[in-house]
Amino acid sequence: MRFDIITVLPGLLDSPFAHSILQRAQKKGITEIVVHNLRDYATNKHKSVDDYPYGGGSGMVMMIEPFAACIEKLKSEREYDEVIFMSPDGETLNQQIANQLSVKGNIIILCGHYKGIDQRIRDLFVTREISIGDYVLSGGELPAAVLVDAVVRLIPGVLSDETSALSDSFQGDLLDAPVYTRPADWNGHKIPDVLLSGHAGEIEKWRFEQALERTKTRRPDLLK
Ligand code: SAH
Fold first, then answer.
1. Are 198 and 101 part of one and the same domain?
2. What is the pLDDT of residues 62-98, one digit of tens each?
3. How far apart are CA 37 and CA 66, in angstroms?
4. Residue bearing the CA closest to ligand 1, atom 22
5. For 49-62, how does the pLDDT look when each residue is reduced to its tens digit (9 = 90+)?
6. I need a surface site. Which of 77, 82, 157, 190 has the fewest CB within 10 A?
7. Alpha-carbon 150 to chain mean position
8. Per the structure, how many domains does the chain have?
9. What's the gap in Å between 43 CA and the centre of ligand 1?
10. Which residues participate in S-adenosyl-L-methionine binding (predicted)?
11. Rounded to two decimals, what is the model's pTM?
């Protein structure tokens, strides 16, 4: 799976993909993440990528030409399944969307900045618009990193213990159960006895009950 991320601030994306699971996924050749500097596709002599909004008002608007040039170049090199625009007014990212995207081949992600991007980019090139929540950030880079992380960890072979993604919160209708590690007794605070019982069936049952209880109290909306 390949991601092409188009941004005016490529430096913002240096770190998120250079560690841990995302780094390993790239090293294993399971995913390729390529960051493109939108400024390299600026067409005018000032290399500008934004301009004043028609009709006035506050904030600069990102221009169509650099995005169009970059997207068209990428599309001339390979087929893309989706061109995603990170946007607070898009559909809110959830585990189901991450699952859908994890079986795709190539995805372009556009990061907005300032007041946003020229509506014609959205009308002409974008196939899907995704928000990471009901709040506004300064740019689409952190949202793009969130999306790529959520998707890549679902691709088979990325997590060392594949079943661990399946038992995560939101993968089914339940939140994840509590987890514990050593020591079994920390200053008198003990872990539940069942986890030391060695009884797989009992442990499984306990985890299910805990997950159910947690979901009832925290996210009753998930229980149909
Ligand atoms: N004027 C816009 C916000 C622009 S914020 C509005 O009110 O909808 C600048 C850019 O940051 C956006 O174009 C988008 O790419 C990104 N962004 C901000 N908040 C986001 C969110 N919650 N989810 C995804 N992208 C977001």
1. no
2. 999 999 999 999 999 999 999 999 999 999 999 999 9
3. 10
4. 88
5. 999 999 999 999 99
6. 77
7. 4
8. 2
9. 24
10. 112, 132-137
11. 0.96
d(CA 169, CA 57): 42
84 near 108, Cβ under 8 Å?
A: yes
Residue 97 among known ligand-binding residues: no
Domain identity same for 6 and 95: yes
Residues 138 and 177 in one domain: no
| 163 pLDDT tier (thresholds 50, 70, 90) | low
Which of 67, 136, 138, 146 is the best mutation target for the ligand 1 pocket, counting ligand atoms within 8 Å of the beta carbon and taking the most?
136
Residue 76 within any structural domain of the chain = yes
| Per-residue pLDDT tens over the stretch 172-217 | 889 999 999 999 999 999 999 999 999 999 999 999 999 999 999 9
The DSSP call for residue 94 is: -
Three-state secondary-structure class, residue 143: helix
What DSSP state is assigned to residue 53? P
On whether both 131 and 201 belong to a single domain, the answer is no
Whether residue 160 lies inside any domain: the answer is no
Range of the domain at 212: 167-223
Contact predicate 224/174, CB 8 Å = no
Q: Please, where are the H alpha helices in the chain?
A: 20-27, 64-77, 95-102, 119-124, 141-152, 163-166, 200-218
Residue 97 sits in a domain whose CATH number is 3.40.1280.10
Query: Can you tell me which atom of ligand 1 is nearest the CA of 139?
Result: 11
Residues with CB under 6 A from ligand 1: 86-89, 111-113, 115-117, 131-133, 135-137, 139-140, 143
